[in-house]
């Protein structure tokens, strides 16, 4: 009854928000406003990354309005209707200011000032540091501007993501609150691994977009999308090298080198990095296996990993509007893991197990990408084509034995070998079909072919092969428009035909074909240039991994795991309401309805000698609610502060003592980040992550927190940078989980993420836009 009442309250809240939203839109139609619009371009061949438009009263020079514009050469500002003259100022970092005087008394409500061309400013050996806003909130996403922020000083692309507001660091990697692990794109290309992101130079990144309600333009599989947009480089050449020493339980280190050269219309870039890491973990487990039997264990693990990463790319500008490129990237990684597990069972015949295991393995990935971009005209018509071919292979060998009192031990080996190939091609086309409407459409095809072998010998002898194939053909179309100066909207739909086939030896386990439509919509009301309210909807899907469908067995003395080839995909309907009361503050409310959710299940198995039977299962339809607040402010000239807080609540049903209950404890996450400029040009970061626990699917988590920060100083005319950083040095990262499903499993996982790291990087280069003369106006702006 309590849950029914809470659902009614949520419905009343959503209906009230919709009524307010509709009222504000209707009010905008009757508002007495004037619209100032125009087009801004650079006289050089390079597109402006951003520009700022400010409107002043000509009489007393007071500021009337202003706003920043990104990734577009068009601007539009709405001001209250005036009967006097104004001055429009256009500015962008690295360009001279442009001014336009306009008399409003004799003009209409909609004022087009035409095309404004900006002249470049050339400086003598001056490094330009941008002060653009760090965070820009939109109705379906949060755009974090990396240029000029502390994110640009991160050691690599992965650390940059870990510090990005809106993203959560956890033991499994990076996630989006209430949405899970996101899908990553770099300049429109979907990544195949986090190693591709790690190789990025943060200073080359323009912005990061965290999309928690993706449109139909993105693959339907995945609840959230993270897009990394890089800058267009204009160097004749540059070279950078660096490395860092990490003191954790033992000393380890990383090194990297990168070079780039431009010649006429061609740019060539290469990168190589070597990474050496180690970690130590502890794990306590408690499980019930039957009515009177329990098992508890303590495990201590030590892992070591080293990998080689590389990238080679070349870009060729066919003309001012056409570009073609090729990129080869990949990695090779060696891993070793030593684990001792001490087990106590209430069943005396199984008591005092001691398990020793050593796992060694390696995996590699090679990715080839060819792309072609063309700006067909100056009205926004463009075509982008990207082709990918990826090869991934892995091998692992586990040797372990179980000792029961003084009896002979049970020896086992587990050898796994797998190889996967991924081919994909996609084309995206954009065209302005009227003064207000913009259309973007595209198609995509991909195929994944995977072959895996598992060979177990010892007390258990199993040899099995599992092969799978997945094909997907998709097409989408989106329409977006500025209905009025204050109302923007977007409508779209995506269609995907997905085919999956799975074989275990000669037995066919999976042979399915599904076609689905995925609509999306967005509407936004701008009640001034810095404030808005918006409502977004998207239909997504979560397909189970092929490993979760794998009917093969993984067996040891304590547990067996069985794949579920009958597992259904989860369909998700997501609604999101966002409000931006002023530029520094954003509030989001989200609701998702999940059809056929699947999650990890642990069953007691009294008929089998194995203690548990573990697999994925579909559950009953459920709900998820999310809430987040983002606040970003330059408090003083030397202190910038950001706050990100989020909470989410799952409603997963489970059975306990023949009673249906909800796993609905609210989860909380808070990030506080301070960027402080100290004397002698030292930059300091001080940050805190707090995870308040709560439930996530079928798991209940406990609280944990992490304190981290850094000190950065540049030398040798800012060509060399020294960065001293620390992470969680006062405590060990602890994750406590309690399963609410059969078995009452309880797990405490301690991961040793404490370290102090010293990083040094050196970069030199020559830019196209340096001259012997400086400009006083630009220096004053800096």
TrEMBL record:
It is found in: Cell outer membrane. SUPFAM superfamilies: Porins. It holds the Pfam family OMP_b-brl_3. Residues 376-762 form the Outer membrane protein beta-barrel domain. The chain crosses the membrane at residues 12-29. Keywords: Cell outer membrane, Membrane, Transmembrane, Transmembrane helix. This is Outer membrane beta-barrel protein.
